[in-house]
Structures are given as structure tokens and as C-alpha cells.
Amino acid sequence: MKTHVLFSKVHWTWIVNLWKKRLPYALLLVFLTILSTMASLTFPLFFKYLINELQSNVNTLQLDEFRLKMIGLLVALGLLQLSTAVYPYFRAKMNLLIDWEVREKYFHLLLNQNQEFLKNFKTGDLITRLTDDIARFPKISWFCCSGIFRAFNSLSIVIFCVGAMAYLNLKLALYTLIPLPFALWMYMSIASKLDEGYGKSQKAISDTNNHLESSLSGIKILMAFNGEDREVKRFGDILSSRYDAELYITKLSGKIGIFYEFVGHFGQVLVVLVGGLMVVRGELTLGDYYAFFAYLGIIVYPMLDIPHLFVTSRQAFVCIDRLEELNQKEDFVIKGVHDKTHILDNFLHLELRNISFAYEKENILDNITFSVKKGQIVAIVGKIGSGKSTLLQLIAGVHKANFGDIRFNGISLKDIDIKSLRKNLAFVAQEPTIFSETVEENIRFFREYSSDQIRESASLSQVKDEMEKLPKGFLESLGQNGVNISGGQKQRLTIARALLGKPGLLLMDDVTAALDAENEKLFWDDLKSHLDDAAILVVTHRMATARQAQKVIFLVDGKIKAQGTFDELKQNCKEFKEMINEA
Fold first, then answer.
1. Are 534 and 349 in contact (CB under 8 A)?
2. Does domain 1-157 bear CATH number 3.30.70.20?
3. Which DSSP symbol is given to 512?
């Protein structure tokens, strides 16, 4: 999507699509721009008329009539000036609306991406793209409204001023246009450098946020290993690179600013010299000369505003490219096809047929086939690296199998509506995820469940009593990543979150490791009575957990070595028996 010209079709198409939903607002801003332009241009004409009338007819003027005419014109001009007062307000409001809309759009896009996408972007980089790239002046939200309409306003002023100056005196108007080709040459010669500079600057900001996010999330480990000084040095190096990148942009912008200031004031000098001579020679009236010079004064800053659009467009286009990088990645892998989509009303049966999966040419799973029925508990057992967790992630749709088919109630996963699948499935990952919310909201997770249902779910996961002992009980706010509760409590909170709503299929990745033997027994007893008609797949390395299952799937190097009851595998599978002895 990258380009090195201002009139980039892809970027302007992106901006036009943004404005299509706000067409009435765009028309209002166009109308206010025209009014604002008219307000800026009428005062010189008014004073031209006043000066010329006073100069030529000072002895014959009817003062009362002239005074009333002037007052009427001033009142009309004052009312016209009101448009210039409300115009910036509507521009600023639209900036905020664009900020909101773009950020919401790309945040929604992020939530519908797969795991491979998240491996390509660090958290700090994504935060930068959804915050700094959009909102910070003069980036996307400012450029898409204020930047464009300010330039439109300035262009309108320049066109009308040049037209008015040409009408007043064509020869003098041509003198004012002499510096313009040099201004265009300056921009064209520096545009590619601006692109490169803004790209490096935004990357430096992303690197800064990445480092902050990484350091703060792992601050306990840093302190435990006395890593504070090393992290400070690393952060200093990152800030130094950011300083260099932003200083480079500042230098380029400064050069452009100085050059255009010179161009603008050079035009004024020409008008003073040439126009003054024309007044002395009688070729130009004093009123026309005043109006001409007033228009030139009006035109100077708009002429600087137009090249400012060129400069800010480079930065905005770089930021649009960075957002579109998120859009060009493969979407979440389990979207239902429109004309094939099936709604999964309830879970009855799961079947895996010859499932194989490889990641970056490394085979993880090979020819996996088994089935799970409603009301059945199945344990997936194997040594570290045997593919247990990956298997659960394939069933949950986190990854897409390279070969084979996963079927729910006889329907292929790729043909099932994703939302209906999620309503029937709950997945508890090995690493618990805790949000900076209350205990109750962490379990509820934005769903419509009562406090009683939440406490019942917490009781099933053996965490209710411990949460009630917190200062505010279930209304206690948890810090980032649950910093004020233990690792075991975090895991049991995520189990409670999954159990809420009684899913038809429960996937648990080695989550009972956080429970002692007594609490694990209580957990399974309560779970069997609470979810007696649900299918449960549990990855585990604990033999006590595997004994709870009606079926055990034993994986070795990504292949099913054996499957059956715990006692059958213990009796018939040598490797499984060895694993029991090692436990």
C-alpha cells in the first residue's frame, strides 16, 4: 500500500471510505469552509471600497448615508465571521469521531485474528498502532479531518485571493506567484525522506512501548535477578534511537518551514517594492494597493498550510500503512462460510479424523483419530512436547489443522458458525489470563450471569472460600494479571469462568496441577455432578487426573500410541506403564 506521492489513490480511497458514513457531516464542513473563506476575503474589499470612497469623494459624501451603509456592511461581515468561530469546533469533533471509529474498527479486527498473526506483532507495537498512530497530532484522526479541511480552507483562500489580486492588478499578481514553483520543487525533493523518517519514528515508538510492556509485566523476575540496571541501559538505548529518529523528522520539517516562510515573505517584499512604485506612478489606487497587500497578508499562512498538508500526509499515510498491515494478515481461521454455515444449537458428539498439524515445517501431530461423546470424560496424556496442548487448540479453533477434519455433531468445523460454537465450548488454557477487573467480573467475563451463578461456579472450581476472604470479597479488584492473588487462585478463577454457563464441551489444559490431591478430588466430584451431560477433554500429566476419565488418549511424539481406559493402557501399553512409574 506504500507510495511516495501525495495523490496516492489507495490512501485517499481509505479516507473516502471513512467519510462515506459521515457524508452529511462532510457537507456541513464544506459549507462552513466556504463561509469561513468568504469571511476572510471580504474585509480587504470593504476597506478598499472605504479608502477609495474617502480618497475620491471626501468632499461630496453624504456622511449620514455613508455611515449607515458602513455600519450595515460591518454587521453583515460580523455575522459572516461567526462561521469562523464554529468551524474549528466541528472539525475537532469530527477528529474525535474518526479516532473512535478507526480505533474500534481495528481493535475488532485484532480480536478476530489467529495465533500466527499475534506472533508477528508484539503487544507494545499493537498498542502504538491503535493509539499513537491514530490519535497523536498530526496523524490519522487529525489529518483525515482537520488536516484536509484546513488545507481545503487554505486552498480556497489562496484561489480566491489570487483571483481577487488578478482582478485588482494582473501584473502585480504575477509577481506574487514567482516563488511558487520553488516551493513545489522543495516538497518533491524531500517527500521520500519524510516517508523514511516517519516510518523509522513510528517503529521507534513501537519499540519503546514494547520494552515498557515487557519490563513492567515481568518486573518481579527483573528484580529477582537484579536486572534493573541492565533494563535501564536497554531502555536508554531504545530512547536514544527514538530521539535520533524524531530529531531527523524535526530537522526535515524545520527545513521545509524555513523555506516556505522565506517564499511567503519574499512575495510580500515584491508587492511592497513593485506595488509601491505603481502607486507613485498612478497605475494603482491607494485602496487597491491596500486591498492587494491585505490579500497577500491573508494568503501567506494559507500558503504555508497547503505544504503542511503535504508534510502531514506523509506521516498519516505511513500510519495508515501500519494499520493496514494488521488487515492484510489472515483472518481468524474458523469463520463459517456464508452459504454453508451451520448453527450449533447444542453439543452432542466430537470426532477427529486423521488430524495432522505442523508448525514451521516441524510436525506436531500426525494422523490423530478419536471421538468424544456427550457426558464422557477423556484424558489426553503424554510427555512434554507430545502435542497435547496443540491438540486442544485445534479443537478450540485456535489453530487450523494442515490435514484431516474436526467434526461437531457430524458437521465440519470450517462450516460451523463461530459464535454458536463458542456458546457450546469452554477452553481453559494452561496459562491463566486474569483481567484488571473485580473477581466477579473476571468470572462473568462480560456475560449476563447473576452473582449467585458466579459464586456457584467459583464453588465448583474450589476457589469460592478463598475469594470471600479478600478485603472486598468478590468485589475485590485484581491488579494486572492478578498480581494480588496466587498462581493457583488464578487458575481456579479461569476454571470458574469456563464452568459458568454449563458448556457442552469443556477443554482443560493441565489446569488441575494448581490443586492439591484433596481439592482435586472435590473438584472432580463436583464437576461430574454439575456437568454430568457435558463432554470433558483434559490434558494432564497427573495420573490421579487421568484415572477420572472413561477414556485415555496416550500421545507419543505427536501420534496416538494407545487409547482406552486407564486400566487397559496400564496393562497393555509399556510406555504408559513407564510413565506411571515415573510420576
1. no
2. no
3. G
C-alpha cell at 317: 499515510
CA-only gyration radius of the chain, Å: 35
Of 246, 232, 253, the closest CA to residue 204 belongs to 246
Q: Provide CB contacts within 8 A for 146, sequence distance 6+.
A: 91, 92, 94, 95
pTM, rounded to two decimals: 0.70
Identify the pLDDT of residue 162. 85
Integer CA distances (angstroms), 366 to 201, 307, 385, 561, in order: 45, 60, 13, 11
Helices (H), 111-147: 115-120, 123-130, 132-135, 140-142
Angle formed by the axes of helices 517-530 and 451-460, nearest 10°: 130
Report the CATH number of the 349-432+503-582 domain. Answer: 3.40.50.300
Residues 6+ apart with CB under 8 A from 283: 169
- Nearest by Cα to 368 from 389, 346, 348, 351: 351
Paired residues of 563 in beta bridges? 553
Task: Please give the Cα distance from 54 to 43 (Å, whole number).
Answer: 16
Residue ranges of domains in the chain: 1-157, 349-432+503-582
Tens of pLDDT, residues 271-318: 788 888 888 888 888 888 888 878 877 877 777 677 677 778 878 888
**CA–CA distance, 57 with 53 (Å, rounded to integer):** 5
CB atoms within 10 A of CB 155: 17
The stretches in the chain having pLDDT less than 50 are 2-5, 331-339
Task: Determine whether 570 is exposed, middle or buried from the number of CB atoms within 10 Å of its CB (0-12, 13-18, 19+).
Answer: middle
Residue 554 CA to residue 576 CA, distance in Å, equals 7
**Is there a contact between 470 and 439 (Cβ–Cβ < 8 Å)?**
yes
Q: How far apart are CA 102 and CA 241, in angstroms?
A: 29
Burial annotation 418-453 (CB, 10 A radius, 16+ → b, else e): bebbebbbbbbbeebebeeebbbbbbbeeeebeeeb
